Amino acid sequence: MRDGRKTSWRVYLWLSGAVIIAIGAGALFFSLFNTAINNQLDAITTPTPLNDGVRIVAPPKPVLDFTLTSHTGEPVSLSDLRGKPVLLFFGYTYCPDVCPLTMLAFRRVHEALGEQADDIAYVFISVDPQRDTPERLARYLEQRNVPFVIGLQGDEDTLQRIARDYNLVYEQVPDPNVPSNYLMSHTSNAFLFNAEGRMAAIFAFQTDAEIIAEYIRPLLPPS
Questions:
Q1: CATH 3.40.30.10 for the 54-219 domain, yes or no
Q2: Torsions phi, psi for 69 (to 5 deg)
Q3: Which of 8, 31, 47, 182 is the most buried (most CB within 10 A)?
Q4: Phi and psi for 130 in degrees, rounded to 5?
């Protein structure tokens, strides 16, 4: 019986030691794993001067071509603009906030690019074809002091066809201030294309104009 007790005690000690080692190894693994995850999260969530509000599309993504009516009444295709980078935005002329601020950002980008400002095409596509005629688009761009922007009248069929490329969402919503009126809830990002017509970057609403300009400059021809 005494030998049996000794054997049992030895087995108990051995098992206890194995459990302690396993717990220690698990704790160490968890600590290292948790540190690695935290480091990855820090790298993702810590903004830097040139990624705040910006999503790089890598590699640049091809998108469906389209043809819409411009503010001058002429048809314009996305493919017509190849050879230049393109900064593109979806909005509407009755927009009370997002669109005027984005047009202001476009103007500041244009100013920031200086002598190379005309080496990029700027595009405003309406998501409100019921009201945004070419004539209204022309007046709107003049009033916003962005005559360099190409206004395009987005017909419903074309918008639906290309929506997936831009994660484009838009819908009519009641105007709380004018019951007989409506507003458009819409995607507020701006999209940058390289000279080959591929989407290269996506800018969140209110991304600083100088940051946008910094992403455009490498796509421009040498000055």
A1: yes
A2: -85, 130
A3: 182
A4: -65, -35
Burial 123-132 (b: 16+ CB within 10 A, else e): bbbbbbbeeb
Instruction: Read off the pLDDT of residues 80-122 as tens digits, 9 standing for 90 and up.
Output: 999 999 999 999 999 999 999 999 999 999 999 999 999 999 9
- CB count within 10 Å of CB 207 equals 20
pTM of the model: 0.76
For 54-81, b/e burial (b = at least 16 CB within 10 A) is: beeeeebeebeebebbbbeeeebebeeb
Edge to edge, the sheet with strand 190-193 lists 54-62, 198-203, 190-193, 86-91, 121-126, 149-153, 67-70, 75-77
Nearest to 92 by CA among 172, 173, 184: 184
Give me the residue spans of the domains in the chain: 1-46, 54-219
